[in-house]
Each structure stands twice: as structure tokens, then as C-alpha cells.
Amino acid sequence: MVVSDEEKRKEMQDPRTKGIASTIRVVPNFPKPGIMFQDITTLLLNPPVFKDTIDLFIERYTGKGISVVAGVEARGFIFGPPIALAIGAKFIPLRKPNKLPGEVISEEYVLEYGADCLEMHVGAAQPGDHALVVDDLVATGGTLCAAIALLERAGAQVVECACVIELPELKGRERLKGKPLYILVESHS
Amino acid sequence: MTSSPPPIRLLLLPATRFCCLGSAWGGGFGGGARSVRVERRGRQRAVVMAAAGGGDFEARVARIASTIRVIPDFPKPGIMFQDITTMLLNPEAFRDTIELFVERYKDKGITVIVGVEARGFIFGPPIALALGAKFVPLRKPKKLPGEVISEEYSLEYGTDKIEMHVGAVEPNDRAVVVDDLIATGGTLCAAVNLLERAGAEVVECACVIELPELKGRDKLGSKPVFVLVKAD
Question: Which positions fall inside the Phosphoribosyltransferase domain (chain A) (predicted)?
């Protein structure tokens, strides 16, 4: 997917991102001491801002040939489906182990705080699919990396990863197997 | 996983069972409701409740029902699991699902859509966005940061607890609770309790699928439940 330099400049300066950043609540010491948790639930309580968030993604991805939006459980389930619906793409939930019924493929990954495994239904993504991976936040990039792996194993091409928030100091951007990352808000500690 | 869709035979049955669809408002759903039985995938029949005179409604619900996959013996032997992920792979069916809920709730002064983790997170937000309502996630324990209130409940298979953020809903909020499926009604009942404890009015519970034999509606008592597809 090609985005011109001018498009990139306009997106980064989009005034809507200020409102988005202002509605995200930081909760200290969650889920454990020392972590400043970026809470998007307060964004979801502000309908115009939630709409702006989704609109920014829709504007970027409409007409770009995206056939799949894959959302990472559980907060990726909040942002992914509205994007999928607007651009006419399939929505694929990527889930923790033993949640998806039927045949799945699994990929292990390391979290910012622990380790886990992500699963996708066999047959959900197919060769020829152009996929977007969506989550609320990118930290170390481990979860997104596992999501990319699952989609690629199914033969799909991952076009980009899209998150509301990035924690740039954790360098997740570098761990996405060369895939581009699009975010709306950066959070620095 | 997907081959060509099975043929759908629609049989019109006499309205022996009257479904309380929209009876509180009457708009579009008042008068007689017809039952339409849909043959699905040779395994299970779904009864689709349709509004009188709503041809387009029936067609859309029949298409939605045909995209739902039944997985036997998941998560344990004897359970026929209603898998909505196949519907999410069909953009038209997914869009129809959301539109049917949005059509029902627009102009009803709904200020909050509440979604139960995790599949309620898939259906709730698009509805909330279309209505201009807040979206409030109800989550399993210890997932929500900050101050929460909790409610315990019995599942169809086990027990659990759900939590909601303090301050997410307020007195005078008019809420609709959304989940993919209602079985025993335990989860929805817990959700209604959380919302009422916070002072909100729960207008209705909305699900894609109902398993009527598990009598979830009884558990919800006077709280109306709206569903698109009933699965025997």
C-alpha cells in the first residue's frame, strides 16, 4: 500500500488526534507496579471521538484493496469490526487459546508482561487476501508479530498494522517483520 | 470450512408462538409475528422470527442464519456451539446484522451500548457508533484498569464474574446490552444487574442468536430480549 509523503504529513497533523489523545486515560501500576496502562475505555465513552478514531482508519484504508481486517482479542475486537464493515472486508478474530471452535492454527509470542499464544481459524484467511492487523495498542510488538505470522502462514499478505496508541520506547515498530505500522497517538513515559 | 451454502427451505408455519419483538414500541414489529423455519447445514434447524410484512427483514435474517456455523462438542461433549465467526467472514451478512439492530434502536434515545466480552465487543461498537451512543465493555475479572463494580453469575457451563468501570454509565443512561448469543441468560442477567446498580435503565438485551430451550428469557424476567435467529 502506497501512502504519499503528503498524506503522511496530513495524517500526523490531523486535529482529530488531539481529541483522541485527550480521551485516553492513563492508569498507573496496572496490571502491575511500574506499568502506566493506556486505557481506551474512556475514549469509547466519547462518541464523537470514537467516531473520529474509526474515521481516521477508514479514510486511510478505503479503496486500498484490503480484504481482511484481523483484530487481536479483546480490544482489537472493538476497533477492527467497524473498520471492516466500512471498507467491506472480512473480519477475523485472533484469539487466546481454546476460545475459537473448530480447526485453528496457533502462534506463540512474548508479551510486554508474560508470554501467550494466539490462534486463528483455518480457512479464515486465504492466499490472495490483503490483510490489516488491528489492536488498540502496540508495545513490544510481540502480539502483532504473532498476528502477522498467522496471516502469512495462511497465505495472506499483511499490508499494515494499525493501532490507536504506540509506546515508541518499547520499539515494537521494529519487530513487525518489516511491515509498516500506522498509529494515531504516541505515548511516551 | 466454507463450501457453497446449503439450500435454504423456507416453510411458513402458523404463528403458534408469539414472540415479544418490539412489543414495547410496536414500531415495525407490532401485530402478528410469523415463524420461519430454516434448514441449516443438515445438522440443526433454526427458527427465524420475522416481522409481519417484513419481507426484506426475513431475507436478511435468513442470510445471516445461513452463515452461522455449528460446531458439535465444543467447548465440551454434547454442546452444539453456535459459531458466528463465519458470519464475520461474509461482509454483507455482518453488515445486515448490525443494520437490523441499528434500525431497531435508532430514535429510541439509547445513550449506551454495553458489550459483553469478548464477542459482544464485535457487535456492540458498530451499533454504538451508528447510534452515537457510548460503548461500555463488560469484562472478565481483572481486565479493566481502575475502579470497577463486579457481578457473579452462572454460565451454561461453569460460573464467572463480570466487571464494569465505575462511572461508565450514569443514572438516566438508557442502555442496550449486546452479546452474540443468549443461552441460560446468566451473563445477560449479570450485565443488567451491573447497569441497574449504576442507576442506568436497561431498555433491552440484543443478541444475534438465542437457544430458546435454555430459557434465558425467563431468567431475564421482565427485561425484553431481541434476537435475530433462534437455534433449536
Answer: 43-172
All cell numbers assigned to B215: 430459557
Q: What is the DSSP letter of A89?
A: -
CB within 8 A of A183, min separation 6: which ones? A138, A162, A163, A164, A165, A166
B96: nearest CA in chain A? A85
Of these residues, B39, B117, B156, B201, which one is catalytic?
Answer: B156
- Closest partner residue to B88 (CB to CB) among A74, A90, A123 is A90
Best probe of the A interface among B88, B97, B143, by most A CBs < 10 A, is B88
The amino acid at residue B223 is K
| Contact of A48 with A15, CB cutoff 8 Å | no
Per-residue burial over A16-34, b = 16 or more CB atoms within 10 Å of its CB, e = otherwise: bbeebbebbbebeebeeee
Phi, psi of A97 (to 5 degrees): -60, 145
Cell numbers at A76, concatenated: 482489537
Under an 8 A CB cutoff, do A85 and B94 touch? yes
Domain B54-230: CATH class, spelled out:
alpha beta
C-alpha cell at A174: 521494529
Please tell me the distance from the alpha carbon of residue A159 to that of residue A15, in angstroms, as a whole number.
26
Per-residue pLDDT tens digits for B13-71: 332 222 333 323 333 333 333 344 444 444 444 444 443 334 588 899 999 999 999 99
| A112 tagged catalytic | yes
Is residue A130 a contact partner of residue A157, using CB atoms and an 8 Å limit? yes
- The CATH architecture one would assign to domain A5-186 is 3-Layer(aba) Sandwich (3.40)
Which of A77, A94, A99, A121 is the best residue to mutate to test the B interface, defined by the most B CB atoms within 10 Å of its own CB? Answer: A77
Q: Please answer yes or no on whether B122 and A93 come within 8 Å at the CB atom.
A: yes
